[in-house]
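Morning run. Coffee first, then this:
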Amino acid sequence: MKYINIVVDLNHNAFMVNKLKFPLLFLFIFNGLITVNAQGAKIKVSTRVNSDNSVSFNFEKLDPGTFTLQLNLTGLSNSISQTEQTFNLKNYQGNFLTLKPQIKEQGIGYGYSYSFIRGKLKPKYDPGFIYLLPHKLGTKVQMAEASFLGAQYFGDKTPDDWKCYIFYTKQEDSVTAVRKGVVVQINDEYDAKLDEGVAYTSKTNELMIEHGDGTIAVYGGLKRGSLGVKVGQTVLPGAALGSNAQNRSPMLYSITLHLIYLKSNDIEASRNQNLKNSKSFYGFVTPHFFTEGNPDLVLSPKEEYTAAATPELVKKELTKKELKQLLK
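And here it is:
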């Protein structure tokens, strides 16, 4: 029986917005690009008929990040299973489902399709977790909150939990990890500049780091060629990632930062969406930061903060091996 592979990936559609009298805006469209029978897919599913007539469903992936896979079974015979199932795939390969035959001497009839999306579905995370500011210790930064571009230009509704920060520095500065995690995606192909008359472009460099609790930090607006980390690398809190890029103002440099988690894998519901009625698969975390003078702070726009840390804060998620490396 034939099957179809449906791949959902986190690719932004490239676009630009003409300049208007608005502050810096941000559009978050992680509803992604849906393709059928995709070549070079991040995850490949295969099946194997075993000697006992059971059927094993296996996966392979090159991406180090966690993915949620949705499997749809059709035409199932000689076996009992839910027709729609969701699986959390963390390793690079493995078995995620085995169908058992009802009549052991006969084979199982089946067809299947699958879709997947980055992230662990509805992870349990601590909303009060303390993050570091995304700059080296002692750096003074000013924070602004980025508006949801879809609401400003396309009539879309701003997500209820929307939260995206812009961190400004007066000089080019190192961007650092706000928390321990694994680098899962890098885009480093764009020069940080906007053409005359354009207020926003999606062509910005991004770095995505997945944390141990399933949340993902997305660092945007990094300087091209400045990244010093690789996909698959584990970075510790305060580790240098790259440099911030010059903003439209010749006197400022900036990055964007938002913390997200996968809250929905309802891919079918997204097929008829557009910029006016899009619903993100992702939820947004309002982070608490450690700053000089305040160990637990929800930042306020237009305020200036100084990056700081304590040894206990840096070490709290580290393994024994990482602690030894840190002491060297």
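The longest strand covers residues 67-77. Good start to the day.
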